[in-house]
Amino acid sequence: MNKKIFGICDPDRDYAESFSRFVYKKEGNRFDVRAFTKPELLREYLNGGSFDVLLVSEDFIDAGEDMQAGEGVFPKKSTFVLSDEREACDYIYPVIYKYQSTEKILSHILQGFDKKDGSRRGRGTCRVTGIYSPVKRSGRTGFSLALAKTLAEKKSVLYLSFEELCSEDFLRKENNPEALGISDILYKYTVDGDEEVFSTAEIPSHSGFDYLAAASCPDDIRNADCSLLRFIVEEFKKQGNYREIVIDISDYLPEPEKLLDACDEIAVPVLGDERSEKRLELWEDYLIGRGAADLIEKSRRITVPVYDIEDFAKSYLKQRER
Question: How confident is the model at residue 4 (pLDDT cuts 50, 70, 90)?
Fold first, then answer.
């Protein structure tokens, strides 16, 4: 996959380098990041190169550069102006306030960029893959993250963690308070009656895919109505912004078959030992008893390796395409 070019241009070297490192950490599989701290170096680069995304400080806009007319050395597509002031001058490009969280700035940029990036966005069929297993410590979360990251190399992906205790730092609400989370949606929709929360919220990104922060409290998942969780999945599917939705589904959920029914396919990590096999047999008996035998047919058992999980995810997708 050819990476897209992400440019960050700011005279503050510490800021430019720090932002570049952040983008590389979050989106390094998708973007090649270039930082510039002097306008002349940017112009020199643009003589023979180009950007897919450009975040450029107002300090880089010379008096002779008519940004309002869209002229000059700056690319006309997917350019964002970085301003020291909340109320910045009007440009033909979106203006972003510099002194806010880097996560929020990047999320805003990617949302704007992805709307124009036809290779990743746009309406079309959305496939929902659920990763669920009644077997403990089967590699469920590691595989679901690797699958989302691999899919995001070519498609627009939303990752949903329906875990009661999430250990991934970027998914934890306390590490990114401004990120929309599962608990936020459950509260805003069921308590506030906010039906616009699905379409108006800013969705953060990581490793090329969008995600919702995991539940803030374990009880939000353990006491969740799976019909409501299914509704959340279907609402995001209806928005038409994603070609793939990947769901990490906790085995603590009550009546998980209601949520699994929303999935086009179900990956079931297994361990292969006698006790695990027995749990799987009991689980399938349960599904049959609940009148949900069709879920067994669209389930695929997998054994997740300890290492090279991303290679395993690629192999999984190749088998899916056959």
Answer: confident
Both 165 and 277 in one domain: the answer is: yes
122 domain residue, yes or no: no
CB atoms within 10 A of CB 255: 13
Q: CATH number of the domain that 169 lies in? A: 3.40.50.300
Q: How many domains does the chain have?
A: 2
225 and 272 co-located in one domain: yes
Q: Are 273 and 138 in contact (CB under 8 A)?
A: no
Give me the domain span that covers residue 47: 4-116
Q: Which long-range contacts (CB under 8 A, 24 or more apart) does 194-203 make?
A: 198/232, 198/235, 198/236, 198/239, 199/239, 202/104, 202/107, 202/108, 202/111, 203/107, 203/111, 203/158
**Using alpha carbons only, how large is the chain's radius of gyration in Å?**
22
Helix axes 140-151, 309-320, angle to 10 degrees: 70
Mean pLDDT of 272-296: 90
- Domain co-membership, 80 together with 60: yes
Cβ contact 170:179 at 8 Å: no
Q: Which residue has the tokens 């909340």?
A: 86
Please report the pLDDT score of residue 244 as a whole number: 94
Neighbours of 102 (CB within 10 A): 14
Phi and psi at 28, nearest 5°, equal -65, -25
Task: Tell whether the model's pLDDT for residue 124 goes beyond 60.
Answer: no
Residue 86 belongs to a domain = yes
Residues 92 and 169 in one domain: no
139/81 same-domain check: no
Instruction: Please give the Cα distance from 295 to 274 (Å, whole number).
Output: 23
**Domain-embedded: residue 121:** no
Q: What is the dihedral of CA 88, 89, 95, 97, to 10 degrees?
A: -10
At residue 95 the predicted structure's pLDDT band, cuts being 50, 70 and 90, is confident
